[in-house]
């Protein structure tokens, strides 16, 4: 009988709690790490997380092996490391993880957003990590979930299919071989440029939050984010942003899936247009809007999703005016220059590398 993989989940937010509890309910040994001890105090005292779910979904008390804010402890016995934090925190996580990684460990960013695995790998290298570990990224987060209390979580829906890619792509099969015993939903995502270009959160999250800014502030998010927040007009704006993303992907030789195709693959949701498909996605019902504009849908998804896509589009002379408009509005709302803080190929040191070289590196490995 094959020995069960030992998991460490990094991050005790909405997603991290849901993932840790679900893995524990599946019978895996799970360690939960969070850098702020107060945020996991109740989980530590209870020894686990209560998981609630949609009808037919996973439910029960997920007993955890260890709950800690000490990274050395968290990674000591880990074989699979699930990073479930906003991608804007990947920099800090990579720096803390670097001294403690061992050969053979596998890291999955949930999700990588745009260029996540590239950035994480570079940061490990910059922080003198010598371990032969695999860094990979999921195209999107597998759950639609929310925290339901300090030691409980609620899963609205689990996606049917989530592409995943390692860096380099030659390691993807190894990652899938390990993770599929827990999550058969993960499939081969080709390479990290495919998972980056198919970042649907870049289209849905920032624009939908910005375009509902008044409603969020006046009601403190007292409405269904996708069902009430996506009106026919807003859906048309999302479709325009999506066309820009698909065009940017095409410029680097990738046929990106549209949001309509993604909704079908991830949730089996159909529609004549984006508005109809979103309304037909049962998993979106009950998901509330952010209670404030100080939310990761802006501070994470703008610099780590929209900025790299828009910057790449500008580099190839494409029109990305829709993306630029949302980025500018986000900068005004948060009074922060997200262009400066955004994750781009220029910052990662790959500005002068050709498309063919980038593809080869993504498939076979980046030079040291």
Give a written overview of the molecule.
It is built from 18 helices and 12 strands. With 368 residues, the protein is of the alpha/beta class. Strands 5-2-1-6-7-8-11-12 form an 8-stranded mixed sheet, with helices on both faces. A 4-stranded mixed sheet has the order 4-3-10-9. The protein folds into 2 domains: 192 residues, Rossmann fold (3-Layer(aba) Sandwich), CATH 3.40.50.720; 151 residues, N-(1-d-carboxylethyl)-l-norvaline Dehydrogenase, domain 2, CATH 1.10.1040. The relative contact order is 0.11. Helix content is 44%, strand content 16%.
Task: List key phrases describing it.
single chain; 368 residues; alpha/beta; Rossmann fold; N-(1-d-carboxylethyl)-l-norvaline Dehydrogenase, domain 2; 2 domains; 8-stranded mixed sheet; 4-stranded mixed sheet; 44% helix; globular
Q: Which architecture of the largest domain per CATH?
A: 3-Layer(aba) Sandwich
* Terminal CA distance: 39 Å
The computed structural class is alpha/beta
Average of pLDDT: 95
CATH class of the largest domain, named Alpha Beta
Largest sheet: 8 strands, mixed
Poorly predicted runs are none
How many structurally independent domains?
Answer: 2
Helicity range = 40-55%
Number of helices: 18
Secondary-structure element string: EHEHEEEHEHEHEEEEHEHHHHHHHHHHHH
**Strand order, sheet with most strands:** 5-2-1-6-7-8-11-12
CATH superfamily of the largest domain: NAD(P)-binding Rossmann-like Domain
């Amino acid at each position: 009988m094959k020995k069960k993989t030992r998991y460490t989940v990094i991050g005790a937010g909405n997603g991290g709690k849901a993932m840790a509890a679900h893995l524990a309910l599946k019978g895996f040994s799970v360690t939960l790490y969070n850098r702020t001890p107060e945020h996991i105090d109740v989980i530590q005292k209870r020894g686990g997380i209560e998981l609630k779910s949609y009808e037919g979904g996973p439910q029960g008390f997920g007993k955890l092996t260890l709950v800690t804010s000490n990274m050395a402890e968290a990674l000591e016995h880990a074989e699979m490391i699930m990073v479930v934090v906003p991608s804007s925190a990947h920099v800090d996580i990579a720096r803390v993880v670097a001294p403690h990684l061992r050969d053979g460990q596998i890291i999955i960013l949930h999700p990588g957003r745009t260029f996540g695995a590239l950035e994480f790998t570079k940061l490990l290298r910059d922080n003198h990590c010598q371990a032969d570990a695999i860094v990979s990224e999921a195209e999107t987060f597998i759950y639609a979930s929310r925290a339901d209390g300090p030691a409980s979580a609620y899963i609205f829906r689990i996606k049917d299919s989530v592409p995943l890619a390692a860096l380099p792509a030659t390691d993807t099969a190894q990652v899938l071989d390990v993770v599929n015993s827990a999550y058969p939903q993960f499939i081969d995502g080709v390479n990290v440029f495919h998972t980056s270009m198919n970042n649907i959160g870049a289209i849905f999250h920032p624009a939908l939050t910005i375009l509902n800014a008044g409603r969020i502030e006046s009601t403190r998010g007292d409405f269904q984010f996708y069902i009430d927040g996506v009106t026919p007009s807003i859906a048309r704006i999302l479709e325009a942003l999506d066309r820009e993303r698909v065009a940017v992907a095409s410029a680097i030789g990738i046929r990106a899936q549209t949001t309509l195709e993604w909704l079908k693959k991830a949730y089996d949701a159909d529609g004549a247009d984006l508005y109809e498909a979103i309304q037909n996605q049962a998993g979106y019902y009950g998901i509330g809007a952010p209670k404030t504009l100080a939310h990761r849908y802006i501070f994470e998804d703008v610099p780590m999703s929209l900025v790299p896509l828009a910057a790449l589009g500008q580099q190839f002379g494409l029109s990305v005016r829709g993306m630029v408009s949302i980025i500018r509005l986000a900068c005004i709302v948060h009074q922060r220059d997200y262009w400066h803080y955004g994750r781009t190929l220029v910052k990662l040191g790959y500005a002068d590398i050709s498309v063919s070289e980038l593809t080869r590196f993504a498939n076979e490995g980046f030079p040291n």
